[in-house]
Amino acid sequence: PPRRHYIAFHAGLSNHVKDLPHNYKLVFDKIYLNQGKAYDPHTGVFTCPNDGIYVFHWTILTVAGKYFYADYMLNGNVVGRSHPNAATTNRAASSSVVLQLKKGDKTWIEPKGSLTGQHAYAGWSFYSGYRL
């Protein structure tokens, strides 16, 4: 039988990030798993190594009085969103996307717009993905 090449990653934020500029790629740099090395922990970009169906999940926690509008990007186009809004207490938001990708497609998470007050909390914010 043909050998299957597994593609899967799970990463977290090792530092709090806040007040990020527009088009900033959120870098989840604490690697728990990076089978196939398709996720780059230096740029925050997942580059599709093989055509297929992929599933991505992310959770972002923000602290009281802050928020984080997150756009999930595929080759520069929004294909998913999440929005933790913590008016009076810490809040998290999670979201997922299932995408048909082609080799070379790129996905990442970025803040929506350039808004002050955005805050993603380290140790409680994660990003993962895998090929079905």
TrEMBL record:
Pfam families in alphabetical order: C1q
One Gene Ontology term, aspect cellular component: extracellular region
Record key words, sorted: Secreted
Compartment annotation: Secreted
Domain of life of the source: Eukaryota
Secreted keyword on record: yes
Transmembrane segments: none
Gene3D superfamilies: 2.60.120.40
Subcellular location, principal: secreted
Domain (C1q) ranges: 2-132
PANTHER family: COMPLEMENT C1Q TUMOR NECROSIS FACTOR-RELATED PROTEIN 2-LIKE, EMILIN ELASTIN MICROFIBRIL INTERFACE-LOCATED PROTEIN ELASTIN MICROFIBRIL INTERFACER
Name of the protein in question: C1q domain-containing protein
Organism of derivation: Pinctada imbricata (Atlantic pearl-oyster)
Lineage: Eukaryota, Metazoa, Spiralia, Lophotrochozoa, Mollusca
